[in-house]
Amino acid sequence: MAEVTLQDVVKKYGTFKVVHEVNLNIAAGEFVVLVGPSGCGKSTTLRMIAGLENISAGTIRIGDKVVNDVPPKDRDIAMVFQNYALYQHMTVFDNLAFGLRNRKVPETEITSAVTRATQMLGLEPLLARKPFQLSGGQQQRVALGRCIVRRPQVFLFDEPLSNLDAKLRAQMRIEIKALRERVPTTSVYVTHDQVEAMTLGDRVVVMKDGWIQQIGTPLQIYNRPANRFVASFIGAPAMNFMKVELVEELGVMSAQAEDFKVELPLEQAAVLRKHGAKMVILGIRPEHIRFGIPSDNSGSSFSGVVTVTEQLGSEQVIALNVADSTMMASRISPETEVSPHASVQMWVDAKTLQFFDDKTEMAIR
Amino acid sequence: MIALALHALRRAIFAISIAAIFVVFVGPIAILGVTSIRPASGVFYIWRGTNFTFNNFVEVLHQSQVVEAMWNSFVLSTSATILSLGITVGSGYMLSRFGGWIQRSWFATIYIFRTVPYISWVLPLYLVNTRLGIYDTYVGLLLPHIAVHVCFFSWLMKGFFDGINPSMEYAALIDGCTRWGAFYRVALPAAMPGIAALAILCWLSTWNEFLFALILSGKRTPLITSTMAQFVTETGTEWNLMSATAVLAMMPALLVTIFGQKYVIRGLRM
Ligand SMILES: Nc1ncnc2c1ncn2[C@@H]1O[C@H](COP(=O)(O)OP(=O)(O)OP(=O)(O)O)[C@@H](O)[C@H]1O
Ligand SMILES: [Mg+2]
């Protein structure tokens, strides 16, 4: 296990900068997830750590060694690729043994290392097969096995689950998590799937257009997103946004839009007053919008017109038209009868609201 | 009723088409085969008469020039295949994996060579070869063949490597290989079915090649295709001997068709 440090790391293709001054300290044994939309530079960042891509500026350290000019084979890392990248002409056993053989490990040791890994991943019956004789999930497991037999300093994962179907993906996610316990290793995991980011990461790094937007634990990212992008990217259904006007009446501040008014608690009002803007963006998580009438006076009511309902069995998700914008409300009891086009009463607890600057889209705190 | 008639008509058209294709492709070869086992007196009326003989084969195999030509063609095809594949694999890999001005100019060069009609370089080559003193030698024949193969097959080779996901090589780099090792131990074995198919095509194309053989080879290094044409003499054409030689020359292609076809198709579909 080693720590990994990225200091002002930049990647340019020609004059086009695809990764901007990335600073990231990954502790030994930590599992960090890089997440972001397609093309945001997460793979590029990972490939720079792997040494498959040279860096245009900055410093990368693995352990206490600067690896800027160290070729991949000498970085003591292992990587799982999106398409598994198994050696097509080799058996599963040879695939697993390849890295150790390159390092001139004695064959008896190789056999025991491979056996240990195959037992862990349930690959024993497949050792003599070639990759094309394996299902996608099995190939993925071999790719994981190829990582763990080597016992490297760092694991790198580039969207390892995105070629699997939803059910298998959920299963492999759990296996990767279980594997973490058995083979604790510093890991960097790239995905565009926010569920993977939330469930696997000790810390999550959200990226967009080559810039890091926020670094934090999954709960920090979810509960205190640094800006509107992070707020909308993490969470499903996505956070609802609405442009509101802040109005003060008799010392009470409220966020208002047409047919919509929520009175704000004192601390929040203080923060917003300090910020100064009249028009701000209000963010509400779908699960914070509740159906019906608040049981005590901590909630603010508003009404909306139902456009679509989605029955999921465990919950209901409904889309509402509120003050000319669409809002999603989730975690509505599946038994609640809601019919499209009906006008319904909803409420929200003002303490759960988030505010973002209208221009910079940064969270107002 | 009408549907039934249409159905019959469609079947008839299908049968006729198959027959036509068969006649066009198999007909000439059948005539060639029959001619090769007819005595010299029977070649103009091959569908008449019942004298058949293998003497034509015996006779051509006793002509030292035919045997020598076959040997020469074999040596030339084999060495051209080995040497051009060596270059083509490197060139195809480079074109597939690397960018830069060297790659671009190489690409442009082979592209230009491909567009120039083949026949327009044969005569200049004759002059070059005589000037260099390699006219009618293995080297003089080998070099143009290699050049042609490299130009034509680099593209196919590039296609094979394009079809191999480079992340396999990245995995190898991380698994402890150098760049060369990743190519040699991972990309090359993965491209092997394609390379084998290309080797067969390469060998056959040199074996069957006529224009270079006609212009660049002479008495010292006769080749099978040009030798075949020499049965056309001032006193007439010895069709029976020519056909026997042609049948012999067809054998490698036939063997490939029978035994190697599946392999070639699998390789080219890679
Ligand atoms: N060889 C290259 N030349 C020029 N631009 C490139 C090259 N490779 C990647 N890019 C650009 O760099 C940016 C980041 O690419 P990267 O592969 O890191 O994205 P990503 O976040 O992994 O996306 P995805 O989720 O689609 O894999 C993209 O805009 C891409 O177009
Ligand atoms: Mg990517």
UniProtKB/TrEMBL annotation, chain A:
Q: Which domain of life does the UniProt lineage start with?
A: Bacteria
Arranged from A to Z, the UniProt key words for this protein are:
ATP-binding, Nucleotide-binding, Transport
The main place the protein resides is membrane
Q: Where is the ABC transporter domain?
A: 4-234
Is Nucleotide-binding a UniProt keyword of this protein? yes
Official protein name in the record: sn-glycerol-3-phosphate ABC transporter ATP-binding protein UgpC
GO biological process: one example = carbohydrate transport
Source species of the chain: Bradyrhizobium australiense
Q: What does this protein do?
A: Involved in beta-(1-->2)glucan export. Transmembrane domains (TMD) form a pore in the inner membrane and the ATP-binding domain (NBD) is responsible for energy generation.
A single GO molecular-function term is: ATP hydrolysis activity
* Coiled-coil region(s): none
Gene name of this polypeptide: ugpC
Which Gene3D superfamilies does its entry note? Answer: 2.40.50.100, Nucleic acid-binding proteins, P-loop containing nucleotide triphosphate hydrolases
UniProtKB/TrEMBL annotation, chain B:
Which PROSITE patterns does the protein's record reference? ABC_TM1
Record's Gene Ontology CC terms? plasma membrane
Limits of the ABC transmembrane type-1 domain? 70-260
Q: Does the keyword Membrane apply?
A: yes
Q: Which UniProt keywords apply?
A: Cell membrane, Membrane, Transmembrane, Transmembrane helix, Transport
Main location, first listed in the record: membrane
Q: How does it sit in the membrane?
A: Multi-pass membrane protein
Check the record and name the InterPro entries matching this protein.
Answer: BP-dep_ABC_trans_perm, MetI-like, MetI-like_sf
Q: Where does the chain cross the membrane?
A: 12-37, 74-95, 107-127, 139-161, 182-206, 241-260
Cellular location(s):
Cell membrane
Superkingdom of origin organism: Bacteria
Q: Name one GO biological process term.
A: transmembrane transport
Transport listed as a keyword: yes
Query: Record's family?
Result: Belongs to the binding-protein-dependent transport system permease family.
What is the protein name for this chain?
A: Carbohydrate ABC transporter permease
Native source species: Bradyrhizobium australiense
